[in-house]
Design brief:
Length: 373
Amino acid sequence: MIAGRPMKSSSGPGGERMFALLHAAAEAEASDVHIVAGYPVTFRVHGKLTRANEDVLDGHDVREMVKAVLPASLVARIESHKDLDASVEIEHGGKPVRFRANVFYAAGELGLCLRHVPNEIPTFDWMGFPQGLAEKLVHFPNGLVFVTGVTGSGKTTTLAAMIDLLNREGGTRIITIEEPIEYVHPKMSSTIISQREVGRDVDSFYDGLKYGLRQDPNVILIGEIRDSETAAMALSAAETGHLILTTMHTRDAKGAITRFVDLFPHDVHDDVRVQLSLSLRAVLSQHLLPGVVEGQKRVLALEIMHVNNPVRIGIRFGKIDSIESAIQTGKRDGMMSLDDHLEHLVRTGRITPQTALRFAKDPDALGGRLGAR
């Protein structure tokens, strides 16, 4: 991601329009702003798409707004790169408001998506984490911890909160490799944290991890593992005494394990499963669900898997389906199934039974427990 200048209303022909839209997005507490030719500007507010106005944009409109977001040095690179990242900042209500911008092509036309990046890192209590879960996840002396979920499920926020917890406790050397850096962590007196951004500070996640291991880290955050080289390096780092925190774009623990193994050639899957069974410590899978009240903050639903002996055996021998039952019976080890958490959220008035059944893994069984049909 390339950092852009703070934006003012006079920034180019499309600047005034863009400036007003970003202020409106901040006022509406929008998480995302979509600017696509053939549609009005659209906000995502509490998970729902909402039209900012009824003015349909054409290609020229979008191009002028893109020029207002990108630094002049990048405008000429749009044609060759097709996808570019930047950041933009405005002042709203006397405070800086930051957005991550992605410029892309679709059907030959430029498009722009901006995501609001909060200035403050949310606490685990605010996000709705069970008491003590975060502390357990970040205090493993070594190993791999996966945070999984679909796009927009809050994975980056959860990882940022984990790093913030370690940063404030002190005594830890932390390296993060991110694309892009979304939350900027404060410098604390007894912690050293280096936030490295792919494309600006390092060429790739693999390079960031490779060279980061030479910088005396205790904890390394990898924004995403996308290839076998990075996955192999992460396994090696976990085996040699480092705690590796990373994300996977899957809905649950089973999917994360399968996705990780599938990054490798098929002929080494057995070896990878053995390594993963020894290195993996936990998988936290999260979903953001609509709350009971329309327009309120979305509610976090979790599946928590800690690696005990039944899980380790399931990973090692490729019996991935057995992991589901291991989670169900692993409450003493701190595990929690998604459906159990959904039931809890219904009974505490956080979500409706209909929402719970829509996201449940076994809607019939959960419906029976809730008395819902």
